Amino acid sequence: MSMTEKMSEKEFLANYQARDFDAPLMTVDMAIFSITQNRLHILLIQRANHPQQGEWALPGGFIDLKTDSTLLATAHRKLFEKTGVSSPYLEQVSTIGNSTRDPRGWSVTALYFALIDFHAFQQQESHRLEHCEWIDMSKAKSMSLAFDHRLLLDMALDRLINKTRYTALPVSLLPELFTLTELQHIYEIILEQSLDKKAFRRRMIEAGAVIETGQSKIVGKRPAQLYRFNQDSFDFIFPRSLELPRTQPEAD
Amino acid sequence: MSMTEKMSEKEFLANYQARDFDAPLMTVDMAIFSITQNRLHILLIQRANHPQQGEWALPGGFIDLKTDSTLLATAHRKLFEKTGVSSPYLEQVSTIGNSTRDPRGWSVTALYFALIDFHAFQQQESHRLEHCEWIDMSKAKSMSLAFDHRLLLDMALDRLINKTRYTALPVSLLPELFTLTELQHIYEIILEQSLDKKAFRRRMIEAGAVIETGQSKIVGKRPAQLYRFNQDSFDFIFPRSLELPRTQPEAD
DNA sequence: CGAATAGTGTCTTTCAGACAGTATGAC
DNA sequence: GTCATACTGTCTGAAAGACACTATTCG
Questions:
Q1: Domain tally for chain B?
Q2: Which nucleotide is nearest to A226 (CA to C1')?
């Protein structure tokens, strides 16, 4: 039988060569969303190197085993390198692995999605954006992307839309202080559906997802209350989802 | 600058050595749930080899780059090897990667969770279960597990409990035909909470999640209708979650 | 018949949708 | 004052909870 049974764990590890066996390529890819010009945008990069040189892709890359202590740290690093933003909303969507997605061989990618406030991004001095561009989602949907990034982008967008229906996630697309009208507007952009004002405010306030600050902000005519996200409800799930728009039964 | 800019993609791939860079260890781990003896159980394995020889762990292992064409295929293979069951419910929970979870080095694991009907498992001739054991979840919660498998198991259990609140997922723990009383019982075991019979039946039937078969089955006294899961509602999400049990305001 | 399990009737509660109404400030 | 934006009152409706009720079978 195997020799390992006669060894201590210490001896085993001393003899262990991590590269004794085949391992797949392992990468982290990022779907970074933000809202600007009243539209949902996604950060895409035009690949500088082979494979798929010149193709548009989600930003991403290899784990740096020396400096990244966790997968999430790799995601944070990638996001910071591209946008200069260091405190985004960041969540793992899924991990996709197969033998065909990358011509270099069996490859696995952990897909993360991030939401950032576009103003926070713009305030970064160092937003160099080499080869990067914010693409309107409606345009991104019709572009051809490198590898299986079309699938990855669709998965990330699905996650965003679904969670928008039952959580307060979209606050992460706004600055710390915001008005409820602004927040509702963000929801409407993501869901591509208009929402009732009274129902929206009641939902947010009664669940305690947002807290009134007492400050107000003048945008148009009447000044609006500024709210702040209630960090206690970071994982809060509303007991009911926002409904899909009613599809009118066709009249003859 | 990099040579790659002057090469064609074909030349690039011809020169590419997958092992030119460091890659983390990559594994797949399985949280396989089933219900027997009116309790939720999890399949654990006592590790035969180093590291952590002799410790209890979730079943799992390396991707076989030769025979597994996708990560999901690896998960299916692992599940079949351990249980002989080939058509379980199988879903990815999360992927955990860091430099400390495995003494062999930077390691990444894709965690899947599976639900199987215990009878289907028992009918397999080949359920050898080398080193494997079905452990009652209440016992498993107090056991010490190898690596970070305590965390993995908690994540998988969370996912099961959450999805039980808003989907018909637990049908996968029953045979093809089942009574609504049996299904409700499974829900109550998972949620550790009793449910109202009328509300439960109304919810399942009116949403079309289950279909009456016309057949019936005698368990106790009055025979019960047998239902079948409606495959159309595989991704169905109920518009409202099952509520948490009311916590009575303490009376003096 | 009684016991046990299957299944229903129906009232209450919760929370989203609809939509008309009022409030505040710039001009 | 008007206009635009902020915000509220209140009715309806969908679906969950509570719980008492009836139905079917075995012995």
A1: 2
A2: D6
